[in-house]
Amino acid sequence: MLSRLQTYIPTAALAILIFYFAFHALTGDKGLLLSRQREATLAEKQAELKALQAERMDLEARARFLRDDSLSADLLEERAHVLLGFTDPRDYVIRTPKDRG
Questions:
Q1: pLDDT tens per residue across span 76-90
Q2: How far, CA to CA in Å, does 84 sit from each of 19, 76, 78?
Q3: Model pLDDT, residue 43
Q4: Who contacts 33 (Cβ-Cβ below 8 Å, separation ≥6)?
Q5: 53, 54, 77, 76: which is closest to 64 by C-alpha?
Q6: Looking at residue 98, what DSSP letter applies?
Q7: Whole-number Cα distances in Å, 5 to 9, 10, 11, 47
Q8: How far apart are CA 1 and CA 39, in angstroms?
Q9: Which of 28, 34, 47, 63 could pair covalently with 24 via S-S, beta carbons 3.0-4.6 A apart?
Q10: What pTM does this model have?
Q11: Sign, Cα dihedral of 5, 9, 15, 17
């Protein structure tokens, strides 16, 4: 009986290996069943990247206007107002309550 089973041991081991690799090819971290989730994550990250690139371009443009060789009076006044709370005496300031939600 034992000699009869010994002939099937290599075949059974090969079948177990095939099953193991097929199972992980489908359900592993980079498996075929998770491809939609990876694509959705990729699309989300690409949208986030575009938003960050646009924000960086805006910040670079603002920084360019704050350099000594091309100082923008309007931008300097805006930053002084935001950071220091200074306003021109001729400006109208309308205070609104902050949202509570």
A1: 777 777 788 777 778
A2: 68, 11, 10
A3: 96
A4: 26, 27
A5: 76
A6: P
A7: 7, 10, 10, 58
A8: 53
A9: 28
A10: 0.48
A11: positive
Counting every residue, how long is the chain?
101
Collapsed DSSP state (helix, strand, coil) of residue 5: helix
The rounded distance, in Å, linking the Cα atoms of 62 and 67 is 9
Q: 31: Cβ–Cβ under 8 A, 6 or more apart, which residues?
A: 24, 25
How many other CB atoms sit within 10 Å of the CB of residue 85? 7
Residue type, 37: Q
- Listed residue (38, 11, 34) closest to 24, CA to CA: 34
Please give the distance of CA 43 from its chain centroid, rounded to a whole number: 9
